[in-house]
Amino acid sequence: MDYTDRAYWNGLIKMSLSKFFILCVLQTRPMHGYEITRAVERTTNGCCSPAEGTIYPVLREFEQGGYVTAHTEVVQGRQRKIYAITARGRAAFQVAVEAWMEVTQCLVRNECVTGETAASGTGCR
C-alpha cells in the first residue's frame, strides 16, 4: 500500500462518500439502483460514481438496517427494485452531514494539517 499515492486517497474518500450521497439523492424521491448511480454522479459533478458492485451491497446494507425500504415495480417493461429513504435514513443522513461539516471545517481551518487548535477551542474529533 502506497499512502503517498493520490489514487489511494481519492478512492478511499469516494468510497466513503458513496454512502453519504446515496442517502442524499434518495431524499428527493424513491429510485432504482441505476437511477441512484446517475443521480449521485450528477449531484457530485462526476466526482463520486458508485459502481454496480458497490451500490447494491450498500443498498442491501441500508435496507437491512432500516435506512431504506425497497419494493419491486415494472419500469419501462423491466422489473426494478425501487428504494425509498425512511425516517431512520433521513436521521442518519443528518448525522452524516454534521460529521462531514465538522471534518470540512477542520480542514478549512487547517487544524488537522498543522495540529493547532483554533481560538474557538474546537478541535478535530
Topology summary:
Elements: H1 6-26, E1 31-32, H2 33-43, H3 52-65, E2 68-75, E3 78-85, H4 87-109, H5 111-114
Antiparallel strand pairs: 1-3, 2-3
Helix pairs in contact: 1-2, 1-3
How does this model look, in words?
With about 120 residues, the chain is α+β, with helices and mostly antiparallel strands. The chain has a domain at about 5-85: Winged helix-like DNA-binding domain superfamily/Winged helix DNA-binding domain (Arc Repressor Mutant, subunit A, Orthogonal Bundle), CATH 1.10.10. It contains five helices and three strands. A three-stranded antiparallel beta sheet has the order 1-3-2. A hairpin with a 2-residue loop joins strand 2 (about 70-75) and strand 3 (about 80-85). The two termini are about 25 Å apart. The mean pLDDT is about 85.
Query: In this structure, how is the largest beta sheet organized?
Result: 3 strands, antiparallel
CATH class of one domain: Mainly Alpha
Number of strands: 3
Strand order of the largest sheet: 1-3-2
Helix content: 55-70%
Mass-distribution shape: globular
- Spans of at least 5 consecutive residues whose pLDDT stays below 50 are none
Structural class: alpha+beta
Query: How much of the sequence is in beta strands?
Result: 5-15%
CATH topology name of one domain: Arc Repressor Mutant, subunit A
Could you tell me how far the N terminus lies from the C terminus, measured between alpha carbons in angstroms?
26 Å
What is the radius of gyration computed over CA atoms, rounded to a whole number of angstroms?
17 Å
